[in-house]
Amino acid sequence: MPRKPETQKLELVCPAGTPSALTAAVDAGADAVYFGFRDRTNARNFPGLNFSPAEAAQAAALCRDRGVRPMIAINTFAASGQEHIWRQAVDTAARVGVGAIIVADIGVAAYAARTYPDLRLHLSVQAAAANPEAVAYYARLFNVQRVVLPRVFTVDDIRMVTASQPGVEVEVFVLGGLCVMAEGRCTLSSYATGRSPNRDGVCSPAEDVRYEQEGDVLVSRLAGYTINRFGPGEDAGYPTLCKGRFEARGRASYLFEDPVSLDATALLPDLAAAGVTAIKVEGRQRGKAYVAAVVGNLRRAIDSLADGGAPGAAVSAAGFTEGGRTTEGAYKRGWR
Amino acid sequence: MDATAAPFSPLLLLGLALRPVPAAAALRAARPLVDAVARRLSPLVRDRLDGLSGTVAVLPTDFPYGLIVHIGADGLRMEPVDVAAELPGATALLRAPAFVLLDLAEGQGRDGDASFFARDLVMEGDTALVMALRYALEDAADAGAAPFTLVADSLPLPTALRARLARHLKTTAHLAADDVRKVQAAVLDPVRAWRARIDARLADMEDRLARAERQGRPRSSAASLRKEPHASEA
Amino acid sequence: MTRDVRLTLGPLLYNWPAEQRLDFYRAIAADDTYDGVVLGEVVCAKRSPFVSDATLEAAQMLAHAGKDVVFSTLALPVTPRERAELADICAMAGDDLAVEANEAGALYLLDGRPHRIGPYFNIYNADTLRVLAGRGAASVCLPWELEMSSLKAITGAGRDLGLTIEVPVFGSIPLAISARCAHARAHGLAKDGCQYVCGQDAEGMAVGTLDGQTFLRVNGTQTLSDAVLVLAQEIPALVAAGVGALRITPEGVDMIAVGRVYRDLLDGATDGATAEATLRTLLGERRAANGYLHGGAGAGWETMNATA
């Protein structure tokens, strides 16, 4: 079969917060699905979300039946004295037979590499490998086979990584929530609430979020700090601090970033040309309607691209996005 | 952040059917069905709601009846409620137009986050509880407890008719929702247009129910769905 | 006099002009409060050309004064220019020059040679520490977010590995770093063409909530806590756990006075409650926080009974 040597078809990696979202992702054309266990070992540790070991086994089996690669995210940092919880998560993932585990913590990576040398290791975005040397570090120490790049790179920066580390696959986010801060290096959430993505797998924990309607104005508060007021009819966003409205220099504004979702669909050809192996959709907290819609759209975009066509317009425009708007984020230099 | 109301949307239809009835009577009539749905749902959501407790009030903004969902160690309990009533003890509150709740119920259209972003969904109180409920219901829907199936299953009908009714409820609901969207977009009189259409479809549904009754197993709650006899079959 | 627990002055995070930096370090060099000083730009490589001469001069002064001088590195080197700066510093690392890594890229460049690790690197457990020690880390400053029990466990493991464990005890808490510059953005600028506006705020730009509550400080691409970390009554417990050095981050207050409070505390010349009161007085209007160490929100303040 003839192969185009220059670019491989992009692998579509999709989120699943529940078995029902996983089925939706598989049905919509995911090449791989990532999910996590119902505890602090993954970075979407939300109430009611995620997979029990039994559900994970069923999910992995379903994926294998459908030719989809299951991945389990164990991408928080193991708490001192409770390392066994993270090791058990790795053990369970290995037992149910996943295509890869996605790790961030050096201790967890070392355990996985030592105990399951044949289990594919992907480096989570939470590990913040933000330059080629960092990528090489994790590849050297733990034989990491793929790195999910932090959302700090321009397309040129990505090419720099793929060119200098040809032995490591690169996966990048193209759709969904956008971290403004370098991932895995942000403790804004725990500064306000005591719980953070790194330690607890949650940013702006729902338990600390309160919405109040003051007439037509929606006020969002996190642990008592007022982080936004949305005027009548103004689109809202997640209650994360990096998308909050603050006062600085005598003016209230979105200091770090507007409520906005990442949508880099239009850049798919550039990302493929830059040597990216896989593209990732954020959103394990989203409903299956979202997963089905965006995965289906991206599937068509990738297939169209592989057939020599255009990827089509941005896929997330249909009313799914934070603030009702999208951005190409750091992939375009002007964002910085 | 947001939430869905999977089993609630059929209740909206029920509410429509009961609209000419005094509130107290309507709520009383709806209770057996709501209880039945909660009983079916409870074991399917208990796992995901483990460790959580509280009371979520789900209140359509364009409809007279809503639902109170009690979450606790014994799973889930629900009661129909007049949206105008006082809701003491609700730890979380969810308000949205009926069509938004309908989208959520079916896991179609937009998800809860999207409806929240668009300001169509208002949430107050215990955010964690509402989110967990949403995830639990969405997953339960895939485990054979899709809302319309649940409602149909909860009615004492022959098996074949249950499936037909579930399909019918779903179609009716979605047509009604689509209508509402169109009508609202055109700034027409949404209530009148919606009512006209949904009344016709309800008549259809009631006709089926009536015929089911004639086939045997007459039931009081099914009978109470009827208001006036309509006899059209499309 | 042997000092069991050393006092380290952490890197200056703010964009002070060269002359102000030199004055600052001249005073530090002339005083024997601090045992070690960490220099070097951690936040933004764009500042480096303006201050690197001052940094080198300060390094010579401080080394001459007998201080243990360490060069820190960028927290988030991404661009070719930032990576080049990182590579230059790491290339110099050796017996004569101690270099502190703040992310994995630096660790790669320092791999196998003796080096130090700064508090921007995620160390949340002893397993991680063991890996790092095996690659040449000799001294590690733990992140701000750790609570006491984790800190004790990691410190214990560090002692077994022969590592010096350092803990941040004073200063604004770095909460986040971004490829984007919020400081420039607040002035309607992008990071490219930022006009170095971060230099206008000697202690970062104050950020309040919409209700006017003080909350954060923006320092170029870095976001800091508005509250200042103050651990004082907790110091005896840290020392008992085997912590080998206390890190004090420069703020716009009398840093020699701050250092002396800690020195007195370590020497037993003052008690925790008095030290705490003195530090809070030195801070003036600034709020104090110690929440992370006590397992709560970082912004919180846990009132300690005068023991420990």
Distance between the termini of chain A: 43 Å
Main β-sheet description of chain A: 8 strands, parallel, barrel
- Low-confidence regions of chain A: 1-5
Distance between the termini of chain C: 25 Å
Strand arrangement within the widest β-sheet of chain A reads 1-2-3-4-5-6-7-14
The Cα radius of gyration of chain C reads 18 Å
Question: Helix share of residues of chain A?
Answer: 25-40%
* Overall outline of chain C: globular
Side-by-side strand order of the widest sheet of chain C: 1-2-3-4-5-6-7-11
Structural class of chain A: alpha/beta
User: How many H/I helical runs of chain C?
Assistant: 10
Instruction: Please tell me the overall pLDDT of chain A.
Output: 93
The number of E-state strands of chain C comes to: 12
Q: What does the main sheet of chain C amount to?
A: 8 strands, parallel, barrel
Quaternary state of the chains:
heterotrimer
Q: Give the overall average pLDDT of chain C.
A: 96
Shape of chain A: globular
What is the succession of H and E elements of chain A?
Answer: EHEHEHEHEHEHEHHEEEEEEHEHE
User: Which two protein chains have the largest interface (Cβ within 8 Å of the partner's Cβ), and how many residues from each?
Assistant: A-C, 68 and 73 residues
Q: How many strands of chain A?
A: 15
